[in-house]
Description:
Low-confidence stretches: none
Radius of gyration: 16 Å
Structural class: mainly alpha
Mean pLDDT: 82
Strand order of the largest sheet: 1-2
Number of helices: 4
Number of domains: 2
Largest sheet: 2 strands, parallel
Order of helices and strands: HEHEHH
Helix content: 40-55%
Shape: elongated
Distance between the termini: 39 Å
Strand content: 5-15%
Amino acid sequence: MMGMDGIETAKEIQKVIPKQKIIFITGYGNELLLKLTQLSENPLVMNKPLTLQALLTEVEGFAVTKFREMAKNRQITT
């Protein structure tokens, strides 16, 4: 959002959807961790660099990611 940092944006989101899951992707994890106490829910912090696979695992959950991987490798049929 224009003129807002990630913490301020997350706070605004949580005003509308209090239980919304939030993931911060940052290269400044330690600095961000100090500010997270301002949020009502505990967000996930992922440090850069990260892999797309790691992000998908966090967003979809391990079980869904593993299922997609197995289907891609034709270990199971969809």
